Amino acid sequence: MTDSKRRRGLMAASALLGGVLVLSACSGGNENPKGESDGGSTSQAKVDEAAAKKTSEAQIRITPKDGSDNASINSAATVTVTKGTLTEVAMKTTTGTVVPGQISADKKSWKPTGQLERATGYKIAATAKDSAGRAAHENASFTTVSPANSFIGNFTPEDGSTVGVGMPVSINFDKAITNKADVQKAITVSSSSGQEVVGHWFNANRLDFRPEQYWQGNSTVTLKLNLDGVEGASGVYGVQQKTVTFKIGRNQVSIVDAKTKTMKVTQDGKTVKTIPISAGAPENTTYEGQMVISEKFKETRMDGASVGFTKEDGKGEYDIKDVPHAMRLSTSGTFIHGNYWGAKSIFGSVNTSHGCVGLSDTKGANDPNTAGAWFFNNSMVGDVVVVQNTGDKTIAPDNGLNGWNMDWTAWKAGSSA
């Protein structure tokens, strides 16, 4: 081969080799000449993959959501988990007070064991693990509804109590209710007797429930308040979630006749005792109508000034500090009570009181043999006392627990259901 041919062959081979080198450089512009050019992206992918493998599959959910305000004090605080189980939940107020709570048996949920406080900030920290034992964490802070933006209903009778057949369910709200239909819809009252029970609004703050006739003796009544989150007025929400049950006792109705000056005590329609009484004097007659005993006091003070009986010197026309065996029949001050200061001869013969119904009694309320003591010991809150022949008007249905003085049609007309 001539030198010129050899040079041309070497140049071609060199060009070919150079082309290969150029192609290699273009296909891996970020690579280094030592073959480690892929290490950056490969190593990062391996780190991401390893991190993903270490992340727990457990998904924790806290309600209310972080940053919430106006949260419920009953059912808002809950922690749940999917694809895992809860291992620890800690709840505190923003001032550091620990809130007790309990994780469910299956470790899928947690909730406080007591009711929360209104207008209070809370913090929840939760930890869960998945099937591989990998931990997940979640935190949330929220504030419960304030008193100004919430309402409650104070109700009677009490849970677990036993009351007479005339006892209505009476609910007094601490805020005026404008969305009456929504509030009444969230309240149910039922009886084991099957009696129809209807609510009646006396005003924006009071809602009573009763059947058409007195409750059946020895039945059970259930009140359910599902008011949590119900808007009672613009921007004002209910906070109660409660079930109340109470028993109805024997059927006792006592009939006071101011004309004969006697009271017949009946049970299941049968007279069990007749008691001489002294009702309101002609100038201070006793209300007529069906009245329900709402309170009982072994002894109490009765001051005439508190119910409008005053002398010219501004003092009460009477002030007795130890009235025995007193039972309230109206908000305005009508009682049936023992009387130790009057002559024994007045009972059954003359009406002398300022509007109450008096029974013979002794000072100190410790003599069980008096008429006042007997009636007190054989009566319970919710028993009915019917007063007749006094010459006065029928007591207003909302003066005490005395809705029985409204006929059924009018009662139902006051329902917002």
From TrEMBL:
The active site is at H337, C356. Residues 26-72 are annotated as: Disordered. One of its GO terms (molecular function) is acyltransferase activity. CDD domains: LDT_IgD_like_2, YkuD_like. Pathway: Glycan biosynthesis; Cell wall biogenesis; peptidoglycan biosynthesis. GO terms for cellular component: extracellular region. Keywords: Acyltransferase, Cell membrane, Cell shape, Cell wall biogenesis/degradation, Lipoprotein, Membrane, Palmitate, Peptidoglycan synthesis, Signal, Transferase. Residues 46-56 have a biased composition (Basic and acidic residues). This is Lipoprotein.
